[in-house]
Amino acid sequence: MGGKGEKPKLIMDDGRRHDGRAFNELRPIKMEVGVLNNANGSAYVEFGKTRVIAAVYGPREAQPKHIAIPYRAVLRCRYHMAPFSTDERKSPAPSRREIELSKVIREALEPVVMTELFPRASIDIFIEVISADGGTRTTSLTAASLALADAGIPMRDIVAAVAVGKVDGVLVLDIDQVEDNFGEADMPVAAAPALDEITLLQLNGTLTKEEFEEGLELALKGIRQIYSIQKETLRNKYLKVEVEE
Amino acid sequence: MSGKEVNEPEQIERKIVTPGDEVADAGFKVITPNTIYVKGDKYYSLVVGLAKKDLKNKTISIIPLEGYYYPKKDDVVVGIVTSVGLTSWEVDIRAPFPGILYASDFLGKPVNPAKEDLTNYLDVGDVVIAKIDTFDRTRDPHLTTRGRGLGKVKKGTVIEVSPVKVPRLIGRKGSMQSVLEGETGCRLVIGMNGRIVINCPNQDAEEILVLAIRKIEREAHTTGLTDRVKEFILKEKVRRGIISGR
Questions:
Q1: What's the rounded mean pLDDT across residues B151-174?
Q2: Which residues in chain A show pLDDT less than 70?
Q3: CB A245 to CB B222 under 8 A?
Q4: What's the rounded Cα separation, in Å, for the pair A47 and A64?
Q5: What is the extent of the structural domain holding A216?
Q6: Is residue A12 part of a domain?
Q7: Are B44 and A194 an interchain contact pair (Cβ–Cβ within 8 Å)?
Q8: Contact call for A235 and B18, based on CB within 8 A
Q9: Rounded-to-integer distance, Cα B199 and Cα B74, Å
Q10: Does A94 reach chain B within 8 Å, measured CB to CB?
């Protein structure tokens, strides 16, 4: 993902980050649901320069038939980065990383989706990263759960996700590409706040036990902010119609 | 509905909810179990929907605003044939499961697959109005075409709406449907799966009807819709010069 080059200064003298954010500040967030006509549900989510579109199809008959499970729906997920999403063209073929992220995202959503209501059916999620600037898996997860809710699929809760990183020895929220490349640690977290459950927790790099606990707390705070924006977005789709009249 | 709206005399609270929202505590009676779940001693929403909380009778219901069609016995659905077998057809009913229509049911007599070819009666792409005969989650829904108004569709146009908007399209005791039919002169067969077969006297009527249906779909969660639709059809008729203004 781009040349590494010289390590820039990540924490400025005034304690702010390289893009002017405070340590616990999210990037500017934009969300929209129902952006695609042909999908049953869809969402567009933007975290700074990371932009993602997610589409959900289903519940529908599982194809091919042998993948169907007799007592619940199969959840399928495809995470894909567009060739133009990165600095250097990315081959459109699914890479090792994309296959892994597809699995990780699916497993983060499985606890909230009521798959047991649709035996033999499938629910398909397609995630397309339009522009990548760090934190694509968390942005994708945020978009995918919005798209699922937009498709009307019964869910126990909405999943929100954000990454915490350690750069220049400081724990920061919602790291971008530069902070990821030159930081010491990257910890993506996804949670379902109403269920009070963490559905994804990864850690790349090293953190001490204290740093980990502090980082997790920071991430959950960020997740609650994202969660309320998600709910606002879902409600606004209907409140807006009334304004039109 | 700006957030909350409390109707004093009836004590009914309506609001838009999203998955994970707490809607009521134990003690309330759940009317729509498919859209509500229990955790601890609280009820939570499973969907994006319109919650109706009756404080007097202690009931809670959530009507989804987005969704799919889930087959129910005795529902009338509009299906499209997707494949032809030896003694049955497979029909797409916009559900997570394919509908099965037996030839003996459709033809009303036993069939001999060696002598008869089912494509002579129904072929891929044909539209049928059918009723769900049997369905439970262990097996695919079986359809029947025995009954009044059921069977192959010979003429008309099929349009699709979101299945959750269907109750609004029919209206209370069919009020919305009769407005649509009465004002445009079209005939409607509304399938519970969100497919509608329309038969109209002319092009203008059909266009007005489709516009009206799209309006209902867009504003399904608002109140006083039937009157607005009536007004909309009238305005549209004046605009097209079918009736003179005033």
A1: 91
A2: 1-4, 241-245
A3: yes
A4: 35
A5: 29-244
A6: no
A7: yes
A8: yes
A9: 24
A10: no
Smallest Cβ–Cβ distance between A41 and the set B18, B66, B138 belongs to: B66
Q: What digits encode the pLDDT tens for the residues B207-241?
A: 999 999 999 988 887 888 899 999 999 999 998 88
CA A51, CA A128: separation in Å to the nearest integer?
9
Q: B41 to each of B24, B38, B47, B51, B62, how far by Cα in Å?
A: 9, 7, 19, 18, 18
Q: How many helices (H) and strands (E) does chain B have?
A: 5, 17
pLDDT at B186: 92
* Extents of the domains making up chain B: 5-64, 76-152, 157-239
**pLDDT the model gives residue B8:** 53
| Cβ partners under 8 Å of residue B239, min gap 6 | none
Distance from CA of A232 to the nearest CA of B (A): 9
Mean pLDDT, chain B, as a whole number?
89
CB A142 within 8 A of CB A160: yes
Is A158–B19 a contact, with Cβ atoms under 8 angstroms apart? Answer: yes
Match 């994202």 to its residue by tokens. A226
What's the pLDDT band for B1 if we cut at 50, 70, 90?
A: very low
Instruction: Assign domain B76-152 to its CATH architecture.
Output: Beta Barrel (2.40)
- The answer to the question of residue A5 being in a domain is no
Strand B99-102 and strand B139-144: the pairing is: parallel
Q: Which residue has the tokens 């146009």?
A: B157
* CB pairs < 8 Å spanning A and B: 95
Q: Tell me which of 3.60.21.10, 3.30.70.980, 3.40.470.10, 3.30.1370.10 is the CATH number of domain B157-239.
A: 3.30.1370.10
Smallest CA–CA separation between A175 and chain B, in Å? 27
Within 8 A of B222 by CB-CB distance, chain A residues are 241-242, 245
Average pLDDT for residues B66-74, to the nearest whole number? 90
A121 inside 8 A of chain B by CB = yes
The number of folded domains in chain A is 1
Domain B5-64 belongs in CATH node 2.40.50.100: yes
| Closest residue on chain B to A60 (Cα) | B96
Q: Do domains B5-64 and B76-152 have the same CATH topology?
A: yes
What is the reported pLDDT for B193? 94
Please, are residues A26 and A32 in contact by the beta-carbon 8 Å criterion? no
A113 touches chain B (CB under 8 A): no
Min Cα distance A200 → chain B (Å) is: 18
